[in-house]
Amino acid sequence: MLLSTSLINSKSDEFINFFKFLSRFNHYSKYNSMLIYIQNKDVAYYGSGGFWKKKFNRNIKEEARPYIILTPFTPVTIVYDIIDTEGEIPIEELLEKGLPFQPFSVLGELNTKQYSKLLGKLKDWGIPLHNKPLSYFHAGYIWTPKGHLEICINTKKSITENFVVIIHELAHLLLGHTGFEKISNNRNKKELKLTNRLGLGRSVEELEAETVAFLIASKYGLTTKSAEYLAGYIRNENDLINFNYETVIHVADKIERMFLS
């Protein structure tokens, strides 16, 4: 009943996110991780007060939000997200050392001038970029509420990681995944009409956008987690059948011309 309530009205992307969440935690049962997911989907890494103190010498903040899990011989156990702990080692460093993977890490270093050029081109095309303190497992997103367009990135990520995230979100836009109709360049007064390809399904959309990001990142000597990321979205043969190779390559070239040259 609890599981069905948490996932009611969910679509395939929510189903995928749910099981990805469970796969991150091996120090507690999957059932307890499900309970945490129901309480807060953005929890980065959780443990009891004793767990944090004994294993990492971290204390629980006074304003920490408690979460409930079940353990043998006790009614419930209270646990806390790493974000609500404090200690000598920064949270980001501890996460990178303590977790089995770093979901959005990028090997290589981007030239700051290239990143600045990308930000300038976003401004020229009227695409607002917002830095937000997103969770450790949330790199960023593109949002189109009521005809408005904006890209949000994680303030906790490096400019190299955010470069790849921005390219990924621009790919969604130019691939027609958002349904946004057009963008206009304030500097040269050009207008670009966008294709509407809504309805492909989350798996295909992510496969296409991440492939674009991979192609462009590779050109700048950056190695991403694209292989693992893409593998996680290939659910069946239809995902690859609906994948449009020509459109992906065309969009990769277009992003380079519009935002990176």
Would you kindly provide a written description of the structure presented here, covering whatever features stand out?
By secondary structure, the chain is α+β, with helices and mostly antiparallel strands. It folds into two domains: 97 residues, no CATH class; 149 residues, no CATH class. It has eleven helices and ten strands. A three-stranded antiparallel sheet has the order 1-4-3. The chain has a three-stranded mixed sheet with strand order 6-8-7. Strand 3 and strand 4 form a beta hairpin. Helix 7 crosses helix 11, helix 8 packs antiparallel against helix 9 and helix 8 crosses helix 11. The radius of gyration is 20 Å and the shape is elongated. The N and C termini lie far apart (54 Å). The N terminus is likely disordered.
Write the layout of secondary structure elements.
Layout: H1 2-6, H2 12-23, H3 30-39, E1 46-48, H4 49-56, E2 59-60, E3 67-71, E4 74-81, E5 85-86, H5 91-98, H6 112-124, E6 129-132, E7 140-143, E8 150-154, H7 159-174, E9 182-184, E10 191-193, H8 202-219, H9 226-233, H10 237-242, H11 245-260
Parallel strand pairs: 6-8
Antiparallel strand pairs: 1-4, 2-5, 3-4, 7-8, 9-10
Helix pairs in contact: 2-3, 7-8, 7-11, 8-9, 8-11
